[in-house]
Fold this protein.
Amino acid sequence: MADQHPLRQQLLARLPGMPALLNHPEVKALREAHPTLFVNDLVRRELEAMRQAILEAPEERLAGMDVDLERLALRAADLARRAVAPSLGRAVNAAGVILHTALGRAPLAAAAREAVNLALQGYTTLAINRDTGRRGDRHLHTDRLLAHLTGAEAGIVVNNNAAATMLILNTLAAGREVIVSRGQLVEIGGAFRIPDVMARSGCKLVEVGTTNRTHLHDYENAITENTALLLRVHTSNYRMIGFTGEVPLADLAELGRRRGLPVMDDLGSGALVDLSAWGLPKEPLVQESVRDGADVVCFSGDKMLGGPQGGIIVGKRALIERIKKNPLTRALRCDKMTYSALEATLKLYLDPEKLPQVHPVLRMITEEPASVRRRAQTLKRLAAPGCAGRADLAVTPGETEMGSGSLPGKVIPSYVVQVRPRTLSPDDLGQRLRRGDPPVFSRIEDEAVVLDLRTVFPGEERVLAACLAAALG
Ligand SMILES: *Cc1c(COP(=O)(O)O)cnc(C)c1O
């Protein structure tokens, strides 16, 4: 029971009732436009939360509490408005991180979106053999394409690269030892750390070498009759400089062949085209890992590849077949949307010259700085009327990051619009932009909100200008 503090009693007595709240014009409009019972429920919960807050507030805070009908109704309406709007929706990425994990990593190519849209108009040919009419194998949608593009014998897809890593380790090395260099015991974030993944896959981690240098004889000396696998992990999100040394994959593969042990390569991002063709640092190529002799290679579908979330495994057919038979594969399998988006994305790579036009990630990476600057100037011009008197705008050079652990330590030169609000703090403007429609994600640099045009799609400048005006208004 609540104490008898008079202020608490007063607040509880003044708390509006449900009928008053439901009849408030803002709430009423929402109840008419959206499922009424859902809106009613949200309002009831908001009222209940207020009652609870009054009951639990320490005495010294009671004086500052407010149970005004108007305020409560507006808050409930705001809550309801947000609850009925799509929670997962389109966003504008002006934050300048191309593979922004929290914004869904790679934006899909139009071809991939269209493929998903077409496939999902009705039933699909997901896992049926059209010759026999019997149950088929969903992995076959991408097997040939993956083999052609990477040079591997076969390929399959699972939920993501974390799943791919665990699945390979579990299939090839459960209950046995896996040798990996100390310099490659990476943490990707989101609780993906190689030693933990190893343990959960049922394998025993055998670390060799030192943090900065590992030699071939370190691996060789660690091989016992219990060794099942040699693992290389691409140190995707950090770089070591100075007195460092890793064993080239080709040498590790040769050792594996000599000792009858499979070699696995976790590439992380893994690219299918060489970025150095566009003057960028090279991200390891999947086809090079295959050529260098890795028996199984895994990489993400939604990092550099530019496809849907997925973990792609390519390699020797015999090993891929063993992986397919692991019951975990069933638990980690992808759905029809993934296969149709991935198939369409992979097909873009059959015509590599066209990639920068049709592949959003490669388009962003390869857009000429002069073109990014022009779009920044366009945004500044479009936004100027809505910002007049409220913020100062300037176009300045900036830097775009690859994100998702790709090209660590490297940035791509870009152009940004710097927004210096006059009455709001940059943090407040950033929050208002995120809460807008569509939500806009920016970054803060030198006490200004920065909008990086390299990750803003051509054509989005107008909506971005409108969002900025709304957030400042
Ligand atoms: C990103 C990454 C993973 C995890 O991939 P997800 O697709 O995010 O599951 C695993 N290993 C490495 C080396 C990575 O860079």
In short: Residues 160-162, 165, 186, 188, 192, 233-234, 236, 266, 268-269, 300, 311, 405 surround pyridoxal-5'-phosphate (CB under 6 Å). The longest helix spans residues 36-56.
